[in-house]
Design a protein that fits this description.
about 160 residues, binds coenzyme A, alpha+beta, single chain
Amino acid sequence: MNAVVKPQQPDFEAAAMRVPDLTEVMAVERVAYPVPWTHGNFVDSLAADYPAEVLRGPRAELLGYWVAMPGVDEMHLLNITVVPAWQGRGLAVAMLDRLVDECRRRGLTQLWLEVRISNTRARDVYRRYGFSEVGKRRAYYPVVEGPREDALLMSLGVSS
Ligand SMILES: CC(C)(COP(=O)(O)OP(=O)(O)OC[C@H]1O[C@@H](n2cnc3c(N)ncnc32)[C@H](O)[C@@H]1OP(=O)(O)O)[C@@H](O)C(=O)NCCC(=O)NCCS
């Protein structure tokens, strides 16, 4: 039987997301989502000082990014995106690891996220990472055409 060989995870460096990153981030956002975040959504998150990072490869090329919103005891993942050409190489898992570390640094014990019901790829990644599906938010997401789409609410306990 042939073993399944995973593509190699690229070398990357993570850095806090800054406004000058947003031109590249928005270019990815527009191809990665049917209804992307706006430039203003990112600017507002950075202005609010939410934790947010970009991952860059050896030639400083953008590989992925994430944005989260801290609460009193919990963290809410708002956006996690891997550049399409770099998907399936463990970069989402690497970003989730960094987010969990950020929760630990802040003493936050629960991580939450919403995901479109139709986004089976992301749901699988989250489930395998250890998230549980804990609820549904009806008509949460806008769509290009037609009725809004439900979100699944997923949660992960973060041990200290
Ligand atoms: C959903 C999304 C973030 C996943 O990103 P990804 O980089 O493809 O995910 P990963 O590669 O980290 O994980 C996918 C699988 O590849 C595996 N993998 C492949 N190569 C790997 C490597 N070299 N090292 C570690 N894991 C590897 C992971 O283990 C994981 O496998 P599993 O699902 O069996 O556990 C990405 O598809 C994306 O950006 N989609 C568009 C935007 C989006 O939908 N975002 C989420 C909104 S809620």
